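Predict both folds.
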Amino acid sequence: MISHSTLGAPRRSLALIICLALAACADGLPNLGLSCGADPGTPLPVAMSGPAMVVKVRINDVPQTFMIDTGGARSVIERRSALAMGLMHKISSVVVQDVAGQRSVDVVGVDRLRIGEFTFDDQQLLIGDGLPIDGIIGLDILARFDLDIDEPHGRMSVYRHGLCKGVSPNIGAPMLEMEAIRGIRDAKDPFTGTAPFLMVAAKLNGVYSLAMLDTGALGGSIVSQRFADAAGVTNDKLGGDTQIPTKGLGPRINLARHRFEALDIGGELFERPYLLVSPDPDARFPMVLGHDYFLTHRVWFNFASDRVFSVPAQPRIAPKG
């Protein structure tokens, strides 16, 4: 987990959920040509459920609870929820590519998906099996807006009109703008170049690479084995580390919980952070900034202009009683 000298001791790692949404093909992702201008923002009815930020939605007027997942390209509905709502007669399939290889995944159509005051008609949702929640809201919906995610205080707002060029978020405190690009330009994996993942510069033990910001990485921030190797942490140095098993969708693997020397994210230095190291040789992202980062930061995503802003926040105070 990321630890910071001003943010207190790191929390124990939770089981990582590998979301099926991350494996989705890029078809049907939104046009991100948003206009800019004045926009007061619209709060979403979110809450914190353990490490997950969840939101109340209505699928064809049936209330459901979905997780906010900035690391998921496509939105997902759990199969048992789709069955309970009688949606399975609208099922089809798509071919996706993930760490388990190429495979077919079921897709279901819904007439209406409502989140707060926003209604999305004729949505296609991937079907998940074994999700611990009714579903996931991914970037096919989230990237249509600017996002202001404040997990430390359990709040999230969306903006129909993104920030204008050269304008920073006005939240009453200065936010650090982090150099960002969209996806990874990789001819072998066009999915990561077309899906609207926003990547920021990360320097681990003095070595530069890229990190994707993922509210769905509930177990904590993850480093690929390739990035760890480049940073001087080879497999033989992970042998004595605690092994954290993944939980949820995708192949089951163990992640080593290792203390690195230093991590720099956009100019913010984290000294001797704990990070999870994935043994997956085909990991799409060099690094994923997960729950431990969002727990202590307010983050603003501006998808139209590929901009990310962040500011450290006070740790959430546990309720009394």
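Second protein follows, with its predicted structure tokens after the sequence.
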Amino acid sequence: MSRLELPVSLLPLELREVGFRHADQNLLDGVTLRLGRVGKTVIMGPNGAGKSLLMRLCHGLLRPTSGSIVWHGAGRLGVQAVQHRQAMVFQRPVLLRRSGRANVEYVLALRGMGRRERRRLAGEALERFGLAAIGDRPARVLSGGEQQRLALARAWALRPEILFLDEPTSALDPAATKAVEDAVQAFHEDGTRIVMSSHNLGQARRLADDVVFLCRGRLLEHTPAEHFFTGPASAEAAAFLRGDLVW
């Protein structure tokens, strides 16, 4: 069953006046946002805008200090499904000191899968992301691009309904960036909802269906990508697209 054929969806995800305050600073302020069941959302904005923080809040790694985050299917699916139906890949992959294959099998074991099923799914995931030939190498000696694809393969094995990606190509060369973008597209084609932060305008143009633009912890725009790139509604977004420094 594909993700889009799930009888009960976790999505949409709704943020209602979400704020996050730390050390007497408002890092996010009154963010109201709705993410539907399909598509690729790219979160953009200058450094310090709150992009990574917003995704960590959505993923449940942090709790908002004000407002609420609502998964519309949570009441029917339960807390465990909210956790199990989503995945997140970080800017610097968090990998265990074991082989690439064992990294994938480990997360499947945490879901209670038997050894034979873990082995099968890990093999499929490594094959899908072009890692089958190096799956038995220690994960931490792989190149940066290979590590990022391994993190994506591990997430894919979990069959998430929604995937959060925090600047997944910021430290990669063009070839590795292309491989990760192809992997993101593969997730999308399998029916996974994509929410991704990026500072790369070219990448956002290639991947985004819609753009969320943050500046100084405030949501200034959420609009279809084509509207954002051709006619941004805020002065801050227009300056960002021109390459000006936005504080």
